[in-house]
Structure formats: C-alpha cells, structure tokens
Amino acid sequence: MAENIKIIADQRPDEAALIDEQGETTWRELNGNVNRLIRALRDAGLGTGSTVGILMSNRREYFEILAACAHASMTAVPINWHCVAEEVEYVLDNSDAEALLTDDRFVELAAQASSGLDRLRMRVVVGKANNAASGQGGFLGYEEVLANADDDEPEDQGEGDVMFFTSGTTGRPKGVRRLSPPGGSLEQSRLRSMGFSALLGVPQARTTLLCGPLYHSAQWAFSYLPLGVGSTVVMRHKFVSEEVLELIDRYRITSVHLVPTQFIRLLRVDDETRDAFDGSSLELVMHGAAPCPPGVKRRMIEWWGPVVAEYYGGTEGAVISIIRSDEWLERPGSVGKPLPIVEVTVIAEDGRLADTGQPDQIYVRNQMAPDFKYHKEPGKTEEAHLGPGVFTMGDIGYLDEDGYLFLTDRKIDMIISGGVNIYPAEIEMTLGDHPAVRDVAVIGVPDEEYGEQVKAVVELNDGFDPSETTVAELIAHCRKHLAGYKAPKTIDFDATLPRHPTGKLYKRLLRERYAASSRVEGADDEPS
After folding, report:
1. Domain residue extents for the chain
2. What is the pLDDT of residue 152?
3. Contact predicate 71/38, CB 8 Å
4. Which runs of E-coded beta strand occur in 367-413?
C-alpha cells in the first residue's frame, strides 16, 4: 500500500484499519508505519526483488510488513510458526531471505533458525522482547527500527509479491513464486484486490475477521486483499469458538474465512452461547482448504443462513471456483462452477479430455493470476504443467453436465486396490455424516493380495465408545451409502487426528504409522 494505503488514509485517517488483542492501528498510523518500514528495509540494503521472511503470530505489525514489501517491490515469505528451527532455516535459506521479522512469541525459534545465515542483513523482533532484543541473536526492536526512519512517502514504489511455501506431501516444502517480476504498477495491485473482492463477493470497505494463521495463502487472501480496498481487519492469533462469535457481534464483522474444523468447533458451543449470538452483520462466510462433511455444512447453513459459501483453490492457482449455499444444497458435494476468469479441464491418463462425470486429473488456467513456478524446482514445475499457464495442483475430480466441478480426491491420496481406483474423500464424507464421527481420515494400507486396502482412522464424538460394535456400525453405514469395496476393511480410533491449523490432514504421518500392519478387522468385500 503506502501509495495505495494513502488513498484510504486520506479519506478515513482516524478510523481503525487493524485490530488485535493489543490494540488498534488507524489508517493514518498504518500508512506512516509502512512508509517507515520501507525506508528501514532499503537502508539495510534490501531493494527490488529482495526477500523478507516473516515468522510471526497474527498481529497488526504482520500486515504492516506485508504492505511494506508489497510497495517496495520486495517479496514477503510468510513462515509456518509450527515449524522447528531446521525447517525455518530451510525456508529462509531456500528463499534467499535478506531480512527476518519475528515477534516475542517466536523470537527464540527465529534466533536459532537464523544464527548461521550470513545473507540476512536485518533481524527485527516485535513486542515485549524489544528491550532484550540484542540478546536474541542480534535482533533489533521493531519500534526502534520505525522510530529511526522517516514516514514520508518513499520514492520508486512498485508492486511486490508474496511467496508461500506449500506444506508438501513428501520431501521439503516448495516455494510458489509468480512469474511476473517485482516492480510492477501499484495501480495493478489495487485493481487486483478490487477484482478479487468483487469476484468472490467479499464486502468492500467493511470489516473482516482473521482467525486462522496468516502464513496460509487463503487466510492472507481473505484478509490482506480486503484490507487493500479499505476493509478493517480484526484478528486473533488463536481460534476460540466462543470468542469468535463474540467478535463477530462486537465488531459487526461482514466477512470471515473458516475451515471445516472450525465449523465443527463452532457447532459444539453450548446452547446459551449459541442463543446469545446474533450474526446478522455477516454477509460472507467463506470456507475451503479441506473437505467439509455435508452434515456439518448443512447445520452451519441452518444456523448462519445462506451467507455460507465454499471455494476451491490453492496457493498455485488462487481461487478457481465458488459455490453459494443455495447452489450447494441443490448439488451437495460440488465446489461450484469455475470463475469466469478460470478454465478447468479434466484430463485422463492417456492425455484425452475426460468424459462428463468421469473423475481424473484437474488442470487449470487462471486468466487473472500470473503463472507460477516452484522456487528452485524446475523439475517439479514442469511436472505440474501441461503447457504454459495450464497446471494441476494434484486434485482428482470431474465436471457434471451443467459445468459444476466436483472433487473426488488428491492423486497422491488415491487408493488402488486390486486395480480399482478408490477415492478416500468420498468415504470420509460418508463417515463424517455419522453422529459418532468427529473427524476421520481414510488411507490405503499395504495388502498382500490387493496391493492396498482401505483403512479409516476415526476421532469419536463424546458419548461413543471405540468398540467393535462401533466399528461394525460405521462399516455398515458406509455399505449403506457406498459400493461395498469402498467400505473400510479396518477402522482404528485416535484421540486427535494430525491436522494442520489450516484444516489440512497430515495423511503422510498416518501412512507411515500403518505401513506394516492394521489392527481392527472389518469388512472383506472385494473390489469388482
């Protein structure tokens, strides 16, 4: 922003732009802080194309850093704060970061991860640790850095970028970098923010709630981009159901991005909390990042109304499709029609266009978003692309006769049993509708005869026992709604499934656990 923020700051200087647990930042203050930070980064030797690592909790300063990079032709790299020091060091090194900004919550992790990186020209910590920053790996205090810089509008502003590192299913995470070089027009950046909000129906110049980790591309898109067109962003570092409901009413929140796990937690609040919630300010409740059990989604629509909408997208391809409540109720399971700016094709393994209703690899061309590459991974970049601008994110799905897109699974998650393709997401959706199931993961485990067999790992709701009776009941539920060969052969119970805070399931950890054997015997139907 800077130039773009100034437009809003001149109109609404004393209104709140950012609100977190510690306080508020007005548009005038935001503009001044961003200007100072741009100058501080440049004074440290960073310039067009330089990379800035951010290891920070959800707080107002995070948005100041993102905005400074976006206006100084630099690339911001949000870093997953769940990572250990070795993983953080890898992201900093692989991204060629020249600066690292953190906060007092993660300064020890940041100091450990960056201690051997001579490339870093600047280390900064936000928060209470400022006074002791010099003892934490040479970090400067954020307030000190801003105080020593001028807040006049910096010259030579140009569009920067954000490079997110995908969590990856195997191996190290990959940085997703846009092919358009830094330094473009800030007006183009502003128009993209406006276009994004308009296409998805995000209310402009209203109030957005951020209650998921900002290092995730979807949480960034549904908070930072609305900020760019004048929306106030209210944020919390941690999701707490009761607090989220209270914040929506207190700040008259108009839009929020949630994941299915958060839906499930919201639906568990007690009756008194539920009855006290108004929610009439909400205009858009967007969800994505992971499949949502149909029963959970129906209950949210019944509670919050037709403001609930679902999108399909990814770090590589931005938002690809969207489906509103009324459409979804008519076509449960669909993720909607592709946006007007997006072309979706389903390609069979032999290279031909798949028939209507036939699930296979989904390929995308986004006319609005620039093409991408995996940073320093030319082989993986080529593997993901069918041609220039046409790529896959590894998902399997199909288009129906009306052009609605349905996802069946990810290619890497597909189970092949006796030569038959089985899609775990379909089974997970079915089990997720059973009242005993709080959360579920379906994976393929080794089978001497069929190569793989279907296993379900279930997290039970309160009041249900992890017994053979429950196993039999769940398998019978699957047989009722799915072909017999799709029903799990075995079912195990876990207290908590290994999920990322964004809602994505770490199936790799489950596959490793069950690579050698399975425990509870279930059905014995053969694929046919």
Report:
1. 3-12+19-167, 335-413, 416-513
2. 86
3. yes
4. 372-374, 385-387, 390-391, 395-399, 405-410
Residue 201 CA to its chain's centroid (Å): 19
**Which pLDDT does position 3 carry in this prediction?**
67
CATH number corresponding to 416-513: 3.30.300.30
Per-position b or e across 213-246, b if 16+ CB within 10 A of its CB: bbbbbbbbbbbbbbbbbbbbbbbbbebebeebbe
Res. 267: pLDDT tops 90: yes
CA distance 164 to 167: 9
User: Does residue 57 carry a pLDDT above 70?
Assistant: yes
Query: Where does 335-413 sit in CATH, by number?
Result: 2.30.38.10
Give the closest residue to 308 by CA, choosing from 289, 330, 327.
327
**pLDDT at residue 379, as a whole number:** 92
Ranges of H-type helices in 251-377: 260-267, 271-276, 294-304, 325-330
* Residue 168, phi-psi category: left (phi > 0), alpha (psi -120 to 50), beta (remainder): left
Give the CATH number of domain 3-12+19-167.
3.40.50.12780
In the block, residue with structure tokens 């775990």: 424
- Decide whether 335-413 matches 416-513 in CATH topology: no
Please state which of the ranges 121-130, 198-207, 245-254, 510-519 shows the lowest mean pLDDT. 510-519
